[in-house]
From TrEMBL:
One of its GO terms (molecular function) is lyase activity. It comes from Senegalia massiliensis. It comes from the Bacteria. The gene is eutA. Keywords: Lyase. This is Ethanolamine ammonia-lyase reactivating factor EutA.
């Protein structure tokens, strides 16, 4: 029997703020005689909000109250209550993620996001969400090739690389349409980011607030920004690694693959695909149109096949609403309904740790617990391990004992013991741990979930008659 869950995507970007509601359809795809295998089988966007300019109090501060008013009004238009929402994401992206009060804005929105919504601003996750929202993963899978999606917004360009449907690489650069703001009537600069000011200086152009600038000079600057994008993807003849290093906000791309297709999303994308449209260069009071034209005439269109996605400016918010949620495996254990859990840090064992004997494994767990501040007893930790396929009874007993010994500091608190296993053994492992603890400890043990150290996890309320739980894996980061 198919079940529906309601997802929200809220994107507060450098230039725009928007929202979508989506329905996710989950179903048991296994036969009647097999272990249940519950998957998300379909996704459908059911409501798209208007697109608003992101309200700012100043260059360094978001107008949180106004953002909240925008989101509340869109809930009313969609005739949806926050309590109806099961999952999704609130994402503060681009330069907006670096504003002084980004965390406070997320707190203001928490009541509008239902019981189980992730709030994140990590550039890697943002790149992936935008790429999936633009459908780059689908094209990559259909064509059995490598696709790069460049999500170019007001403040940043997030690049995600997909190989046959799977994300293999990401990066983020400070290139966007709102990094220089220009009064279209006076042609005076009203804002310029520090990095773009330095980039322009490298080509002998001085950008200062209040200074009058001509379009010829700005064309040189946006051409240089386009050159940096070329270099980021490993092409171009005007390469200057110092410029790329300046503009990168994370690590660069690995370039261990051959990109065949590229696609563009974000607000600047429409200015790229419609570069010949009758748009005034500074009609938005920024360089978005000019940057789009520079990219359109770049060698990116010569070196790669170019795919135009169905979603451009809405790619991130659509991705947030439909691609952040996954489903756990169908053999899980939980002793009572304590859900949802939010922002639980991951303690991931390495493969080297798990190659130790089970007695040494408990010591490895204890050692890594020291990474976390457990002194006040309020810190929840999720232990993550790969687990053994087709595990024997004796191995299962030994593994359960190692987890109990290693996580003793958690077990001695009132916090639940949360264990995440990559392989499909969570039900047996959870039941064994529960028995060894005398059925006196709250336990959550889920499987078929891949995580790494530095990740956080949200675990939502059980679905499909308790067979699975929705999960979101993310990195919480507000500065790069």
């Amino acid at each position: 029997m198919m079940e529906q869950i309601l997802s929200v995507g809220i994107d507060i970007g450098t230039s725009t703020t928007q929202l979508v509601f989506s329905k996710l359809f989950i179903e048991n795809t296994a036969s009647s005689f097999a272990i249940p295998k519950v998957n998300i089988v379909d996704k459908k966007v059911i409501y798209k909000s208007d697109i608003y300019y992101t309200p700012l109090k100043s260059i360094t501060e978001i107008d949180g109250e106004y953002v909240k008013t925008i989101i509340e009004s869109e809930y009313k238009k969609a005739n949806i209550s926050p309590k109806d929402v099961d999952t999704g994401a609130v994402i503060i992206t681009g330069e907006t993620a670096r504003k002084e009060n980004a965390n406070l804005v997320l707190e203001k929105l928490s009541g509008l996001a239902g019981d189980f919504v992730v709030a994140t601003a990590g550039p890697d996750l943002e790149s992936i969400i935008a790429g999936k929202g633009a459908g780059a993963d689908v094209i990559s899978k259909q064509e059995k090739t490598v696709v790069a999606n460049l999500d170019i917004g007001g403040g940043t360009t997030n690049i995600s690389i997909f190989d046959r449907g799977e994300v293999i690489d990401t990066t983020c650069l400070d290139i966007g349409g709102r990094l220089i703001k220009v009064n279209p009537e006076t042609m005076k600069i009203e804002y310029v980011s520090d990095k773009i000011k330095k980039l322009a200086k490298n080509i002998d152009i001085d950008l200062e607030v209040g200074k009058k600038i001509n379009q010829h000079e700005l064309n040189y600057v946006t051409d240089k920004m386009s050159d940096v994008l070329e270099e980021a993807l490993g092409i171009g003849v005007k390469q200057n690694s110092k410029d790329l290093d300046l503009i990168l906000t994370t690590k660069g791309l690995k370039k261990e693959y051959d990109i065949e297709y590229i696609s563009f999303s974000g607000g600047v994308a429409d200015c790229i695909y419609d570069a010949e449209a009758n748009k005034e260069s500074f009609q938005y009071g920024d360089i978005g149109v000019v940057l789009g034209k520079s990219i359109r005439k770049s060698i990116l269109f010569d070196e790669f096949k170019v795919h135009k996605p169905s979603e451009t400016i809405r790619a991130t918010v659509v991705g947030a609403g439909t691609h952040t949620t996954d489903i756990s495996g169908s053999t899980i254990t939980f002793t009572k309904d304590m859900f949802p859990f939010k922002n639980i840090p991951i303690l991931k064992l390495s493969s080297q740790d798990e190659e130790l004997d089970y007695h040494s494994l408990s010591g490895a767990i204890q050692e890594k617990l020291n990474w976390f501040n457990l002194e006040d007893g309020n810190q929840l930790i999720a232990l993550a391990l790969k687990g053994v396929k087709n595990i024997s009874f004796n191995e299962l007993q030994s593994l359960a004992k190692s987890v109990i010994e290693g996580m003793k500091e958690i077990i001695d608190t009132e916090k639940p013991l949360i264990v995440i296993v990559e392989n499909d053994i969570a039900k047996a492992l959870g039941q064994t741990i529960n028995r060894l603890l005398g059925y006196n400890k709250d336990i959550v043990c889920i499987d078929s979930v891949k995580v790494k150290n530095g990740d956080f996890i949200d675990i939502g309320k059980p679905l499909a008659n308790g067979k699975v739980v929705p999960v979101v894996i993310k990195t919480l980061a507000f500065g790069y």
